[in-house]
Amino acid sequence: MNPEQSIATDARRSEPQHRPGAVWRFTRHALEMIVAMVAGMIVLEPVWSFVLPDLPEVVTAHVLVMATNMSLGMALWMRIRRHGWAGIAGMSAAMYLPFLVLLPFYWTGVLSAMALMTAGHVLMLPAMLAAMLRRRHEYGC
Hints:
By secondary structure, the protein is an all-alpha fold. It is 79% helix and 0% strand. It has five helices and no strands. The radius of gyration is 19 Å and the shape is globular.
């Protein structure tokens, strides 16, 4: 292969792929992450309920444990799907970030426990999307 062909080949590899397949891979990963989050909560919540039966009464600890449950579910699935540790760390951070932003509002009485829980979960989705867009090359986008 001559140098001009090599440069052209390298340029094609670095170009973003705007094919329906790339969009599907991105969307599938998002859906897989949501399923993994729910699975993490369902599987690990009974463990925490047994070990710390009063956990729901301590709202700060409860939301952070819930974020941990979701992160563990996602991390396991991402490792099974052969994602790197940097991507796993980014997706895990997306689980904690909304709560870390919202907790001061709860502590000062601006948000109720229910509002904290609801807003934290809702904000996880755009945080997760941002983490995925940051590493979109992993999905062929």
